[in-house]
Amino acid sequence: MKMDISVVTLVFGLLMFGGGSARVVTVPPGPLIRVEGQPVSIRCDVTDYSGPREQDFEWMTAREATGSRLRIISSFDPSYSDPSFSKRVASGDISVVRLQDNEVELKVAEVKATDGGYYWCLTPSTDSTMSGNYDARVQLTVIPNTLRVSPLTPPPAVSEGSDLTLSCNVTRELSHATYLSVTWSVKRGATSEDILTLGPQGDVVTGAKYARRYADGGIRLVPGRNGLFELVITKVTTSDDGVYECNGTEWTHDNRGKWTKIVASTREMGTVAVTPTGQSLSVKASSSSPPLLSPGETLTLLCSVAADNLPALALEVAWLADGRDVVTMDRSGVVIHNASAGGSRAPASLERTDAGEYRLGVRGVSGEDAGAYACRVRAFVDKGGRSSGGGGRWLLAAEKTSGAVAVKVAQTKPSFAVTLEAVLKPQMTAEPTELACHVTNITHLPLEGRLGVTWEHTPLPGAGSDPQTSQPVGSLDGRGNLLPAAMYSDRLRSGEISLTRVQPDTFKLRFLRTQEVDMGQYGCSVAAWSANSQGDAAKTAEHQSAPLAVRWVTARPTLNVVAKRVREASVGGATFEMSCAVATVNLGEAGYSVLVQSQDSLEGSVRTIMTLSPDNVLQHGGATDPTRRDGLVLTKFGPAEFRFRLAGVQLSDRGFYWCDITAWTKQQAGQTWTRATSNESNKVKIDFQENGPSFAVALQSDTTIVYPWETAKMECSLSVSGSSPKTGAHADDLAYEVRWFFTRLRGGETTTQVASVDRFGVVRKDARNSSSDVSVERKDAHAYTLNIHGTQDSDSGEYHCVATPWYLSASTGAWTQAGELTSSRVFLTVRFAVWESLKLPLLYGVGASIGVGLFSLVLGLVCAQCCCRNTTHTPRSRNNLMDLEMD
């Protein structure tokens, strides 16, 4: 028994003191190279130690590795420092900062040349046994500050689009292995952002806003000799304004691959202002043509462009006539004509005659060419670098428009006559109407044949408007733009009414479906347009046609539907097909909706089988069995004929079938259908006889009383008699659809479906308000079992099954559905077991009590052994270091 207690005590001691861990004190690898006058920090940490979590540290230094050490500072003893370091520690020049419980940092605010040497980090022992190292050493080398940064002053002002060169000289005296980096930055207000940095290894890092510009070649680095570095920013813009600075940094590289910055110097290079192009850009337009041009003469205009940085700009030059673009030369020199500007009949020419000189020429001018001409110039700066071939990102630097130059052309008033004729006249509602307006005997018409037409309609008396008041339908202006009147706006936009110019001297008005409100008198008015002396479009002549009457005799539409049998269904499983033909009177273009309806007898209720909308959207009615929808077809067989087909008829399909058809019309495209008239067809009968088998169903349970978590089984058995298909072991001509239902007698007699299996054997379980589960098992060809697993009190109630037999008809070979069968009801009771509910909690309580007692006994023995053991080692004081040799 004594040996067992000793073993327990040893295991407990190993757990308490961490077994055989060895203390490790670490500092950064040396030597550390630092610059005189700069801050220095040396970290020290200890791991794998015993004792309190917070450890103490002491720092010592010596000139040589084996020389006498001087005490610098301690993390716990204020009087630890040597007199040579006391003042620096008291002033805060030397300090120790605790980073974690086991990590501190020795900080020197301004290192001196005399601080070079070896530094030791020591930790007093708090371990029960001595193991590992208790100090670590690193060498510190202090070099003089020889870093020099001498920038060259950039020009104070640079024109937009020019290049800017930033030169900076960075040197140092190389006494140890140090490296240099150079950074250019720009300051705008209080915000400064880096442009580019040439790293100590020669790597290049760009600022976030300058990365793409550097990749495109818009920023270039040009290393020089003797510490001279140049940064060239090409194609500067106004966003490049600011105060530029140059930063030089000296680095060291330790054997772990870490780069350390030891000294840095930033010098201001100077302020650079970018002169915007818009300040010096000027545009002037002038004319070398006579003040008044005769029709057919040539118009010549000159555009002069000047700017301080003109060679660095890409120009886009455009001539405007009354504010509309006539012709444009883009920045690459491509000339673009604007055909929709309403300019001259002859195309205009634009060419560059000299640097900043652009000439516009228009040959064969007419009255339409008169107006106020101005030259618009857009100046672009290429932001793409040389890597993109000079075709990178373009920036619009400035835009200016010259003063207007008035151009006048002499005019002659045109003369012509207007006649109106009916190309198509409707004979009934919804038929098309087409009217043609002809312009004849034209003289002195302006070039381009700028004629406009306006159509007007005067309604008949009693049509809802004053018969003496004409209403505008719409117009086409001289440029062919459609201007609809408010009353006809929707019909013109939808295309129901169209206004067109089919020839230079012929205009047409067309109604796709003429309505009764469209009857009345129509007239067209044609106007000639040309430019006046001020350059504005003016109506120079206008003539109106004689009125033309459009009307017809209205009659009420009628519709007749005839149904006939196309295919007879004489036996079950055959296909029945019926045709419904439509004949109309006084009805133009129309759409039809079809309802296929049926009834078991002439006195029975009417069922809707299928519907087809006038937009040919097919839907099944509420009387359609979802499993038979693939056998139902309703199609449009012709312009006014529809076919209905029913495949695989059954005894339940016998009865009368007919079509209910409605005619619909639209006043205009895009609008909703309007009902015109409807009618029903004659009735076609499906009648055949077939003797099928008869079925019976019964529900039985192995027990009606179960306890919670037991399984209850209910078997739904079916039997077949009479003229039946094969019923052998491998019969495949008989199938059943079976569903089970549950009626809960507590909380209201509501019946819900529990589970089902279709005739293909697919089982579906419905959602239930119980934690129990159900499954369905097919025992043989005529028996199905419902299993309720893990029954609960909520499963108590009445159960019954509903079966639908399907058999393969011997005469047609088609599957036929028999009538639905409902079984008797079985009541299931779930009783509550008191002992079963209390057995497990009692067993768990007894087991827990025994476990707690045994654990208390073992813990007392372990604590007694630990308190009675002899102390073999006394830890030293925290205030003094432990002598390793004596220990």
Write a structural description.
The protein is mostly beta strands. The protein has 6 domains: 122 residues, Sandwich (Immunoglobulin-like), CATH 2.60.40.10; 128 residues, Immunoglobulin-like (Sandwich); 126 residues, Immunoglobulins (Immunoglobulin-like), CATH 2.60.40; 136 residues, Immunoglobulins (Immunoglobulin-like, Sandwich), CATH 2.60.40; 129 residues, Immunoglobulins (Immunoglobulin-like), CATH 2.60.40; 140 residues, Immunoglobulin-like. The protein has 6 helices and 62 strands. The strands form 12 sheets. Strands 52, 54, 55, 56, 59, 60, 61 and 62 form an 8-stranded mixed sheet that branches. Strands 21, 23, 24, 25, 28, 29 and 30 form a 7-stranded mixed sheet that branches. Strands 11-19-18-13-14-15 form a 6-stranded mixed sheet, with no helix packed on it. It is flat, with a radius of gyration of 52 Å. The chain starts with a helix and ends in a 20-residue tail after the last helix. The N terminus and C terminus are likely disordered.
